[in-house]
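Exercise 3.2. Students should predict the tertiary structure of the chain below and write it as structure tokens, then compare their answer with the key that follows.

Predict this chain's 3D structure.
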Amino acid sequence: MKFSGRKTFAEFLRENYNFTVVRVTSELSPPGTEKVLHFESVDEMLEWVTERWRDDFVWPEVETFEDYEKVAKRPFFLLIELKAKFSDRLNRSGYITFDDLVAEDDTKSFKKNGLLELTPHAGYKFLNCAGLNELKSSVRHLGLSDEENKKRLTRPDWDTYFMKIAEFAAQRTNCMKRGVGAVLVQERRIVATGYNGTAKGLNNCSDGGCGRCNSNTKCGQSLDSCLCLHAEENALLEAGRARSTGATLYCTTAPCLSCARKICQTSVARVVYRQDYSVEHFTAKICKEAGIVLEKFDGHLGGSVVINCAEELQEIPDIQNLSI
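Answer key:
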């Protein structure tokens, strides 16, 4: 949106991280802005940038879904959204009226291929609801000074990659209590996947196949009457012990005690989980005893990372001494 801080954001990247600003416009740059390039069209800009993809560029003018689709084809592209309070934007404008700003917002948001179609695709959303220093300090979350961090913004690491697959597997669940997915990986190759639900030949839990899950039974109770196999069990059964030995098991939820025993028996070397579970301390205890590495995944899976600039500043003891 206009007056949300896009140009300031782009200039900060140019001045502090050696980004080159690219614009699709016939206007000339003001004196002293030598690292601003102008192109007649998005296609022309994209062709030029692609040939120099190892360099860093920022385009502060993505306003239509049609333009986004063109640049999003490139694997090195990341869409960032800046949002600011309406009152702040009105004050920053210095001249536009309330009605005019509302009308412009509506036009850009609700038109075909407009900003509302872009929003779901933003990897990061900066809530620019404080001052300039707060906005600048929040950029540190992108880790642009570190080349490896920069790569991870557009290409997930292995743990993120396999955990995303586990999350997708969880969508196949037929259990009425919760959806869980698991992926068994050997030397960065998927050996098996699994999701929770009733055993083969039985009615799906979601069709009433498991009385325990279809009742109001509390988590962790009456497990001996549950007819659902857990995601970890299904993955391990599919793989067998020979292919499980030394493997890494990715789970969307921490394994229960029963699954932890099977993980030990099949000689899995490492377990990575995303969400906690009520009996997690038992799982941690026996994994430690069996020499199995148990790690909680702390990465980001899909959607947008929301960064509130005002809140982030509070985490920094002395903004004046911050080097960004």
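Discussion points: DSSP finds 13 helices and 13 strands in the chain. Residues 313-324 have pLDDT under 50 and may be disordered.
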